[in-house]
What we know:
This protein is of the alpha+beta class. It has one domain (2-37). 28% of the residues lie in helices and 9% in strands. The protein has helices at residues 4-9, 14-20, and strands at 2-3, 36-37. The chain has a two-stranded antiparallel sheet with strand order 1-2. The termini are far apart.
Amino acid sequence: MNSYDELVAVDGSLPELRARGQLRLEGKDYLVRDGEICHFRFNVGR
C-alpha cells in the first residue's frame, strides 16, 4: 500500500500517513508493486 520510505518518514505512524493522504485502501484485485508495504484486512465469517 505505501512505500517503505513514506512509512519511515512518519516514524511508522499509519494515522499520520492517513492525514497526509498517503494511505489508501485497494480492492482484492490490486496488483502489489515492488517496495510497497501492505496491511491486509480480512473478516472471519461465522
